[in-house]
Give the backbone structure.
Amino acid sequence: MNRTDALIELDQVTKSFGAFQVLKGISLAVKDGEAVCIIGPSGSGKSTILRCINGLIPINSGSIRVGTHEVHKMKTEKEMRPLRHQVSMVFQQYNLFPHRTALQNVMMAPVQVLGHDRREVEARARRLLAKVRLSEKADAYPGQLSGGQQQRVAIARALAMEPQVILFDEVTAALDPETVKEVLTAIRELVDEGLTCILVTHEMKFAREVADRVCFTDHGRIVESGPPAQIFDAPQDPRTREFLGQVL
Amino acid sequence: MALIATYAGKKRTVQLGIALALAAWVCLDAMGSGGEGWARVWARLPILLTGNASGWPLSGGFALNVFLSLCAMAVAALLGTVLGFGMLAKNRLLRVPCFFVMNFLRNSPWLVLLFAMLYIIPFNVRLFGVSIAIPAFVKAVIGLALPTAANFAEIIRGAVQSVHSGQWEAARALGYMPMSIYGRIILPQALRRMIPGWMNLYALLMIATSLATVTGIQDVITTLNTLLAMENERVIVYFYITALFLFFAFCYPLALLARRMEQSVKGDSL
């Protein structure tokens, strides 16, 4: 792929937590509209990659570019504000704000951070809640919702920022098997609409279906990447084969 | 029996039994030799409660303890808030001294702090050539407010840090600045966890106001001691039981309310 037309570009990114090096030189380019799944064993640095892309975790060396933002050069939260507008994130533990209703959760950031008009945002929020099939739960607090419902609210909240990219961090890992499906359906729709998505996931079947490209990470490196058919049916690297042999 | 089938039911039965036994003992005693003692207490009750034999105006006694606890709590809230947020500050130069002060105050005996304030704070201060006397009451307020402030600050710090770190992450990912993360996301959640802690602390402070007798203010304990000098030795115990009951009656409902609120803010069920 021609690197310059990539929307997101990571080049030789390293990151250490104390003496432990989590990322040992990650290079990755994601095109606009592409859906990339990152798979790999626990502790291989998958979630850290996502957190580096939107600047939640500062990196030690290398470079990260998202659109025109050079993430590795940003130091303060204030500098990162435009980046956060462009890149949304959905978390494994949902992380909804428990003191606000579902609708307020979706509306908060666009009104308070982006300064959008409240009425316009409310219409947008209700539209997004309808999109994730939760219109009737608009006034419920997160504590009153099931895990799957909370995660769909979290997706609506991420979408309300009108981002170009959404990062999904093991969004179904905390859910029971039945509710996984409703969340995956919501994500699949976004991918089909052409939103750029980077997904860290353990749902191999889902990765195969929605991803344009799958990256396998192990010990802080991207060991192998390619179209899902290639990764899942004809993995080249022995570590990929071993991992897939265990999970499939 | 359905009443004692559960653990909670058994506990309640035992508590009720103890309370009834105590009440029965007091009643029996009052019908016998204790009647005279209670009559003395009854006669002195207005002065114990208000510091005034006629019951009005309020000039001391238990009313002064209540007033003292309210003043000390107000000062402690102010000081504790500054200290609490100091301990949460990112800047080490701010955080470390705050931790030091908090630990020092929290680990000092309240009575020692009261005595210390009694001697450290001068009787008079000269301000712009005007001599202002510092009454014992002010010293008592400051002496009690210091340890309370340290505990108040710890409650703030504990509650803020008990908010799940994912909340910070989510808020940052949505583009919130650190100050508005505190104001809009962390504090609204933490505040609900602070209130029960503060109420418990206030109940503790109220109990500790009995120590303020060392400053010489006319609180319920000082009044009690003065009265006892004129009383028969055998009725002393009735007076102390009364003082005990006054504090209990004031603090126990607060503790109950705090516990109920604690239950309702447990975990993430806000």
Q: What stands out?
A: Chain A is about 40% helix and 25% strand. The radius of gyration of chain A is 18 Å.
